[in-house]
Known about the structure:
The complex is a heterodimer.
Chain A: H1 3-17, E1 30-31, E2 34-39, E3 58-62, E4 64-65, E5 80-87, E6 91-99, E7 115-121, E8 139-145, H2 146-154, H3 159-162, H4 182-185, H5 189-192, H6 196-199, E9 213-218, E10 225-226, E11 233-239, E12 242-250, E13 264-273, E14 285-294
Parallel strand pairs in A: 1-3, 2-5, 2-14
Antiparallel strand pairs in A: 3-5, 4-14, 5-6, 6-12, 7-8, 7-13, 8-9, 9-10, 11-12, 13-14
Chain B: E1 2-6, E2 11-15, E3 25-31, H1 40-49, E4 62-66, H2 75-83, E5 88-89, E6 92-93, E7 147-151, H3 160-164, E8 170-172, E9 179-181, H4 191-195, E10 201-204, E11 209-212, H5 217-220, H6 227-230, E12 237-242, H7 253-260, E13 265-266, E14 277-280, H8 287-294, H9 298-306, H10 312-318, E15 330-334, E16 337-341, E17 347-352, E18 363-364, E19 369-370
Parallel strand pairs in B: 3-14
Antiparallel strand pairs in B: 1-2, 3-12, 4-7, 5-6, 8-9, 10-11, 13-14, 15-16, 16-17, 18-19
Amino acid sequence: MTSKHSFAALLLLCTLTGCPSGEHDVGTSKLTGEIRAVAVGEVPLSDPFSVAWNNMPETAVTVLPQTVAYPNLIKQSVKELRVRALADARFLAVRLEWDDPTLDEKLEIDKFSDGVAVEVPLGDAEKTNPMMGDPANPVYICHWKAVWQRDVDHGRADVQDYHPGFVSDRPPFVSGGMPYPVSEAFESDNARRYLPGVAAGNPVSKIFRKWPVEELQAEGFGSLADHTYQDAQGKGVWKDGKWTVVLALPRQSSDRSNPMFQSGKAMMGFAVWDGGNQNVGGRKHWAPFVKVVLP
Amino acid sequence: MSKVENIQLGREMEYPYEGSRPNRQIAYIFDTNKCIECQTCTVACKTTWTAGKGQEHIFYNNVETKPYGFFPHGWDVKLLEMLGPGEWQDGKYNGKTIFEAAPPGERVLGYMPEEEDYTSPNLGEDVCSGDVQRGAFFQNIHNTWMFYLARICNHCTYPGCLSACPRKAIYKRPEDGIVLVDQSRCRGYRECVKACPYKKIFYNMVTRVSEKCIGCFPLIEQGEQPQCVKTCIGKIRLQGFLSKPGEEKADNPIDYLVRIKKIALPLYPQFGTEPNVYYIPPLHVPRLFLQQMFGPGVEDALKTYRSAPADKQLLAALLMFGNTPKIIHKFKTDKDHAVGYDGMSQEAVRVPFTEPFFAREIFDKKHGVVRLNIT
Lengths: 295, 375
């Protein structure tokens, strides 16, 4: 067996079985204009640096500041997303990588989270507005946020995590003692009335989060709504001044608000938020639909 | 941008949405001359609505000392500086509002406060405008001044928060003009926090969405005044409903004091949101400062206020403050009393123009003790 054949066999083995991360990524082919998903036995959902991603075709997607709807993003701080894709029987996994010198995973009055999202038209891509769709042509969105990743990795950030010297009277109806952790002390309905977003069932206020991603639907600016059933998964890691995030989208779902990723072609748009530059909501970088070729 | 009529500016102005006044507008009058900054209103509000986790820095109601008190820090001077000077001429404002001065890509001129701006809720308390010069105490009136400014959401006719929300998660109730954040729709973008010129909308880091004064709407719906009004021991507050412009009723105490007698004035009307908390300005503060804060009607308002002892109708309206938990829809004078009526036209309060005076002997013969005057 030649060395070339040996490397190909190793690569195939790794992609099928999942090898430990940390191997060098060599010889990646650069694509333009389309993203090609490569078939694997099982996509590595929990490790964005798995060698399964190495040497996969990479597409550079140029992102631009959003300037169509109010409020605009005035200052561009992200130039491009580097996109790779893998697919198994259950998931289309997209790995998104971009340069971001600051880790922004904290939500406070003046602090915003890094994030990334992919958008897929639910109908005819030719008729769908890549800027959040419209009522006749809605879009599916899978959104990952650094703050949700922190929730999943380290537990939900609470007041005492950001303000260690925090002292408070006992909030009404809570149990336990200082610092009255939100995840434990606010169990009764009465206590949760003092967490209005939680009491109202707002998904943004969710106390427990299994995955750092949300599946959403939009039919125009300001119409973003969460799916009742959340089927997507994901994982993001910030390392050496860049984010590497895997979004795993279910290829089939009983949820009619989900797109079906069958073999062939799909279209996918992108958005990136740089929390350190106060990117939030419509203050984002975006890219229109790019063709994704699925195995 | 649409053109809407801003009656406080005496002209039309640009606003992101079509103008639509509610059938009746919740409104408040605060008499700054009576406020002692006891913070009873603040505590009443805090314990009722914002005692939860993540709400530590949230004060729907606060009372700050002017000129050096702010919450959040510097909220008004920062925006005034961004907005720049604007002139009033014959009751018309010729400068730009926060909507007209919006930078490219924005709907509203505003700024995002920093976390530290919320860390000292009563910074500047009781700080005077300057040092009291040596000997001034003996010269009767000295030249330094300060006053207390009680603040809540202004439930603006043209809210900055509402206009900036890209999700339309903020709405103004048509039945009473109360401005609310839909807690199930807000996604915590904080455009509202940036846009509200009064910084009366807050971000909750625990629920990750924005919150604001709800005008105690559960009380309003039962015909009662909000917690901050009912609990005010200085009786500085009155809450009621303002009629649409041109439909003012002389027997509605809010219409009468705000639109007919013009004794109470909006806070920073030049921002352009048409705020609906109206202030009777402090009598002893330099007029230029007050005109910057309350607009060009200050001199006339204070002149009218000083005339109240001789104006029975005006006095009757002022006696509606703090004497009943009910919302007063109508008032009238009845010989020696001011009488207020609730929404069902039932008498809700009767206040004597002159408090009864009781003189007691200094020695209580029955108990054999000397009475002490403790008032």
